From TrEMBL:
InterPro entries: MFS, MFS_dom, MFS_trans_sf, Sugar_transporter_CS. This is MFS transporter. PANTHER family: BLL2771 PROTEIN, INNER MEMBRANE TRANSPORT PROTEIN YNFM. It comes from Paraburkholderia acidicola. It comes from the Bacteria. Coiled coil: none annotated. It is found in: Cell membrane. PROSITE patterns: MFS, SUGAR_TRANSPORT_1. Belongs to the major facilitator superfamily. Residues 30-418 form the Major facilitator superfamily (MFS) profile domain.
Length: 423
């Protein structure tokens, strides 16, 4: 087993044979149930979150609003999601991870049904804002659950499968809704997705085993959560991983945000429907995230993380071409590199965090969504002032910073000593 992901000063030892029962072992029935359940959780969260993105022009027409106002359907949800991640990680320490994740998924699905029936724009926005607030109960808790329950040698694959579920959900939420709009009204499509994800939430809670390790003691109820977050931020390796998540997400969102503008303009002149199909690249992310997690378990997270960043850099380079097939190939390659990097970084958080893993996961996701909102939007300034070349240069800078942070993290990890055999 490769253990180069363990921190040099960590008190987390390599599990002894006698301690195997404390973990969910790769290949066991419980491990398979956890992997499938967390894939479903990722799917539900991101399909609900991003299902409105292809509907923004429809909202503008139906409610008589401008394009900027219509974008609130997505930005309010993501904004409330970022805030609720911190709150949910605290509540899960008290009320339990499994129940919190199911409640979050079920409430969000019901609110999607309510949004589909909203009589006016303001009611619709309230439902979407509350939906984002509810969805925060899944991402940070899912990462912490996996880190606490799954044996370290199988953590990468299970985390990768969860990230693959988020990729699949994001793709279905965007592409699937676009296809359904050709046949059904937008309210019907949103209602159908809400009903589907409510069924997914039920399947999730039936599959996911109750956690073995989380103890909801009085100490957990009276803990100073700010001190826990400060403690994680004071660990330089952990902070570096947070930074990697922020920066690589910024690159990914910036490229996807402004590739559409480029492809719809000459010399490509693609239609909006054709441009929207670039989100099908997410299917490569599903495969890449699961494969990266398994490779990280075998070869070490540092090596696979550098590989993911190299792939992302190659993808950005291909998008500089003026040939449409190479541009599309570049977006696909970047997507693969992004999901490799995100899968490895997110699984590394649970191994580097020394206690309060839910708080560490919430900080990673806070940085991750900050990269989406701040750096993704900042890419627009480069697009407006320098075209695609400037967007690519901006992406190179962010990825170079990721490489520096990855070197810092990897240089401070070492193999944990092998457990001594008893006489």
């Amino acid at each position: 087993m490769n253990t180069d992901t363990l921190p040099a000063t960590s008190c987390q030892p390599t599990p002894h044979a006698a301690d195997e029962a404390a973990w969910v072992i790769p290949g066991s029935a419980a491990y398979r149930r956890i992997s499938v359940a967390l894939f479903l959780a990722g799917f539900a969260t991101f399909s609900l979150l991003y299902c409105v993105q292809p509907l923004l022009p429809v909202f503008a027409h139906e409610f008589g609003i401008g394009a900027a106002q219509s974008s609130l359907a997505l930005s309010l949800s993501t904004g409330f999601l970022a805030f609720s991640i911190l709150c949910a990680s605290v509540l899960s320490e008290r009320f339990g991870r499994r129940g919190m994740m199911f409640t979050s998924m079920a409430i969000a699905a019901v609110l999607n049904l309510a949004a589909a029936l909203a009589p006016d724009w303001h009611s619709f926005l309230i439902a979407r804002a509350l939906e984002g607030l509810g969805l925060g109960g899944v991402p940070a808790i899912a990462m912490a659950y996996l880190a606490e329950e799954v044996h370290p040698r199988g953590l990468g694959f299970s985390m990768g499968l969860y990230v693959g579920g988020t990729a699949f959900g994001g793709m279905v939420g965007r592409v699937g809704m676009s296809i359904m709009l050709d046949h059904f009204p937008w309210r019907t499509t949103m209602w159908a997705l809400g009903a589907l994800d409510l069924a997914v939430a039920i399947a999730f809670v039936l599959l996911l085993p109750a956690p073995r390790k989380l103890l909801r003691s009085s100490a957990a109820q009276s803990v100073n959560h700010l001190a826990l977050w400060r403690g994680h931020l004071s660990q330089t390796r952990l902070s570096a991983v947070f930074g990697i998540g922020c920066l690589v997400m910024g690159v990914f969102v910036a490229v996807y945000n402004y590739a559409g503008f480029r492809l719809m303009a000459p010399p490509f002149s693609l239609s909006a429907t054709q441009t929207g199909l670039i989100f099908c690249s997410y299917v490569f992310g599903i495969v890449a995230s699961s494969a990266a997690g398994a490779c990280a378990d075998r070869f070490g997270r540092g090596m696979i993380l550098f590989a993911g960043l190299a792939v992302a850099i190659a993808g950005v380079t291909l998008t500089l071409s003026h040939a449409l097939p190479l541009v599309v190939a570049g977006i696909v390659v970047l997507t693969i590199g992004f999901f490799i990097t995100h899968s490895v970084a997110s699984s590394w958080v649970g191994l580097l965090a020394q206690g309060a893993k839910g708080h560490a996961s919430s900080l990673y996701l806070l940085a991750y969504y900050a990269g989406s909102s701040v750096l993704g939007s900042l890419g627009g300034w480069f697009w407006q002032n320098g075209g695609w070349t400037s967007v690519a240069m901006f992406s190179y800078v962010l990825l170079a910073m990721c490489v520096v942070l990855a070197m810092h993290t990897a240089s401070f990890t070492r193999r944990a000593p092998a457990p001594q055999k008893s006489a």
